[in-house]
Amino acid sequence: MFLGTINHTLDTKGRLIIPQKYRTQLGEDLVIAMGQDGCLNLYPRAAWEDSIRFLKDLVTFNDANAREVYRFYMGGADDTIEMDKQGRILIPASHRAFARLDKELVLVGVGDFIEIWDRHIYETEHTFQNISSISRQITLPGSREV
Fold first, then answer.
1. 6: exposed, middle or buried (C-beta count within 10 Å: 0-12, 13-18, 19+)?
2. Domain spanning 5-136 has what CATH number?
3. pTM of the prediction?
């Protein structure tokens, strides 16, 4: 399970050194995908396949929204990501552009995968000052509110 928040940097070639605490869990077979909130998601292959299997099960012939979400994730994924001996991955230029990545990054462990954020965007959009209020608005299956 990926946990924690780590500030990191992107080198001039678009490479990111994966922190040691995440390397073993990621393994060698990686998938990077465009994330829902404007970040990138870095998955071990098995976690990616579980996530996509769930989405694929939602897709039906008559549900254009589900097809569009599935298309976004599948079309925005790259399974050719390799980690070198120094623990670096090259983030594709298209993915760096999508997430508006500059030099300073934030890596956020969110369970089955790692979110990769531009540090300025993350710190601006995720202040967590209203987390109590937001938490009260979440509806869980089978309940009314948290």
1. middle
2. 3.40.1550.20
3. 0.85
